[in-house]
Every structure is written in C-alpha cells, then in structure tokens.
Specification:
The protein is of the alpha+beta class. The protein contains 2 helices and 2 strands. The N and C termini lie far apart (48 Å).
C-alpha cells in the first residue's frame, strides 16, 4: 500500500513540475500544448533566447526569441 501511495505522489509531483515548465514556454509566446512538448524535447524550460514567434500557422519555436 505504501508503494502505491508513493507512486501516486511521484506522479502528481512530476505532473506539477511539467505544467510549471510548460507555462514558462507559454509565457514566451508558445501555446500550452507546444509548451508540454517543448519541455520534453528541450528537457526543461526555455533559455533566455528560446521562445515562440508568430508564424503562418500559429506560434513557432525559435532560438532567437526577443520578447
């Protein structure tokens, strides 16, 4: 029983951290869904020079972000 509770707590913590990092991408012009994907592909939140700029089909990732 303790193992199950431990795994649930870990899952909740990971989800909260993932959401916080995705919101950091969202603050840099990315859609929230893009933020979740970028957390995985970039392994964390954005650096100062990373973000999203408006493209033809919505926000697009750039490593030359000026915001």
């Amino acid at each position: 029983m303790k193992t199950r509770v431990f795994l649930i707590v870990i899952a909740v913590v990971v989800t909260v951290v993932w959401t916080v990092l995705a919101r950091e991408w969202s603050d840099k012009g990315c859609r929230l869904g893009q933020g979740y994907a970028l957390v995985l592909t970039k392994v964390g939140g954005p650096d100062d020079h990373e973000g999203c700029q408006q493209g033809l089909e919505g926000p697009e990732f750039t490593d030359a972000y000026v915001g």
